[in-house]
């Protein structure tokens, strides 16, 4: 899985770091420890980034979701509509 942050050019370097870690599921405390910041600074950076209008896109291969090949599997099962 990969993430893409669209509108990243609007964000500061620190905002980019916080957004990327937050989107990977890290807590404010984990991010603060990793970036040597206080949790309140992490919250400020994240909230500031949200106001700048970035968009996060998750890129996943379809087979990871088990959705490719369904049509082929259903052919021949009598479930065709």
TrEMBL record:
Which organism is the protein's source?
Formimonas warabiya
Q: Looking at the record's lineage, which domain of life comes first?
A: Bacteria
Its taxonomic placement starts with: Bacteria, Bacillati, Bacillota, Clostridia, Eubacteriales
Under which name does UniProt file this protein?
RNA polymerase subunit sigma-70
- Note the InterPro entries from the entry: RNA_pol_sigma70_r4_t2, Sig_transdc_resp-reg_C-effctor, Tscrpt_reg_LuxR_C, WH-like_DNA-bd_sf
One GO BP annotation of this record: DNA-templated transcription initiation
HTH luxR-type domain ranges (all copies):
25-52
State a single Pfam family of this protein. Answer: Sigma70_r4_2
Give the GO molecular function terms.
DNA binding; sigma factor activity
